[in-house]
Write a structure and sequence with these properties.
Elements lengths: L4 H11 L3 H10 L9 H22 L3 E2 H8 L3 H10 L3 E3 L4 E3 L15 H15 L1
Antiparallel strand pairs: 1-3, 2-3
Helix pairs in contact: 1-2, 2-3, 3-6, 4-5
Length: about 130
Amino acid sequence: MSPSPRWEVAKGLWRRDDVPAALRLLETREAWAAPPLEPLVRAVAAEVRENELDLIGTVYSTVALATVAEYLSLDEQAALAACRARGWGFDAADATVLPEPPPPDDAPEDLDGLERIKHLASIVTQLSS
């Protein structure tokens, strides 16, 4: 019996051994498309990508755009758009991104619903790095 997609996503995110595969599972499973789940799954995928960008900004001073795209499970154009949205530089000659470290985390004390889940995902990502 093969593991459920939910288990594979949780395992990939918890162990951090294959975050791109977890993102692909989140975005390609028809089971997630049910109306009550779809917004939550999209929010989780977006938050995981934001956390990955935070990690990239913390770890790298320069990184290949292809590497960023792989980490985010996006094509290079979408990955570049995500980097530019953060104000990161891009060297077209080398196809390298010039990331900046994320700002300090000042999470508000009173979180509710989806914000609480996003904050928890951020903490888990930081603890597992």
